[in-house]
User: Fold these one by one.
Assistant:
Number 1:
Amino acid sequence: MNDLFRSQRLVYRAYESPEDDNFSWQIAQDIESAVNSNPRLPKPPDKKEIEESRKAYSGKSLLGVIICIAPASAGSVSPEGGTSTEIPIPIGRIALDAGFISQVAFARHRSSKIGLEILAKYQNKGYGSEAIRWILDWGFRIAGLHRIGIGCFSWNDGARRLYERLGFVPEGRQREALWHDGGWHDIIEFSMLEDEWKALK
């Protein structure tokens, strides 16, 4: 349990305000990442929107954490190519939606959904898959969930391939539910059940 909030290369920590306000701005202004994870109309964020987003990840989630690259041993090379530091580098955030779980009448269903955002410059380095595996472990083993969902947009083929590779099962599509870059696109839904997760261990 000592390493509960660590994985191979990453550490996961709570939001610290106001220390993390600058990181919240970075996430909100990273349009490439935002359009792949959020169906909201792309526009310059204001303080209210950023605060609402922060609250959704931290206060209104079953679990909401900042994803950080763990400090490496002294003298090693950082992911950016320079000398590593002892300070974790925030690169994204991941959450399990409280959803039904926050309502006593629905808590018995033990179902949640993953939300994930990683800054564009840290994508395609395996951090997303590592963070998803970590939160699946926390959700099933620690929180006692039975089902965990995740979704992507049909223009984000990399996310679809990743979720299937991690063992998520496609459940269906909301056809032409989103307008993006001049055309209509689907929302693709996936899930994993606790027995399916155990079989992957």
Number 2:
Amino acid sequence: MSVPVVSTSRCCARALRTSSRLSFAPQPITCQYQRWTPQATRRYESTATTPTDPKIATIVDQISQLTLLETADLVSNLKSKLNIPDLPMGGFSSGLAAAAPPPPAEEEEAAPAAQEKTLFTLTLKSFETAAKPKIIKEIKSMLGLSLVESKKFVEGAPKMMKEGVPKEECEKIIETMKALGGVVGMD
């Protein structure tokens, strides 16, 4: 038997012994080993509904009935209508990518393409097998990854390292990786 069953049976037997000795009137059986049962302590387990606006409730009901494709279309329409920029999800970009300017508006795209590119994307293209541990350590420190993540990242080359990096920093990173035995491309 499991521990709670054994302790419960002992408790009940003790209660029956003491109740049969003292009186014949039925008494409530109390057990010192009562099992704790949560009473909807978590928000998601709660059955109580909070009063909501009926307009919002109908919108929620309508959204919950959408398919995945319809939901994706709804999200893209809301982003465009409310001017919400697309933010990158995860990835290996550093804080510099977050500080990059927002994507240019359509009017600016029509401007001449003669402007010089200032932000670049770095890609780890290949590396010497003898220099693999050094490359892994450098990637770990540069991107802030764990050792396992850095190893998987290096083994998955060619892979994008950083995006939205200024030219000077790109050149420093390329020189560092070249000295260690890695080949980094700047796009």
Number 3:
Amino acid sequence: MRPSLSWQRAIYTVNPSSSTLSNTTLTTPLNKGHEAMAYLTYIIDNYSSLPSTIAFLHPHNSGFLSAWHTDTPLHSNADALNSLQTSVVQKHGYVNLRCNLNPGCLKKHQKNKFVTAEVWQEIFGGTSTPKQDVPPLVGAACCAQFAVSRPRVLERPLSDYEYFRRWIFETEMTDRQSGRVFEYLWHVIFGMQAVQ
């Protein structure tokens, strides 16, 4: 199934070569943080003109081996996007596109090694997030594929998203580690409870 023509596309190349780079290629300023760098770059670059519903997805359309974390019968994100109920996204503000609770939501995954008290303070301490105790558990379905409404994104000032991206630039964590931090924090960034 092909994606709906009503969806706008913003496909980022995180490590472009001279053969793939053109004047229309969307790129990230650094290849670090896995998909978080592309997601944050999109929000920062489009903050004043975001569509009403934004779906942040990996480019999977090729079956279980590369897309095991896409919950459609053929593990296709095109199918996932076509079946997305935007009215639900508008009602709740944020919807994880992964319905399978493993990994991420099971109790054994909610105390993860990536979202520590120190990381929580680093991520949220320099933003508009109200001061709060670090939650003892943080959990959401894995894999950083979700949809969010424009009003929910705009609940945070642009400076928060710039701060989050700067944290990825500056942290000593690796690409994988810094990406994993955001994988388990997107729902919190967009106003949901620490455990989904």
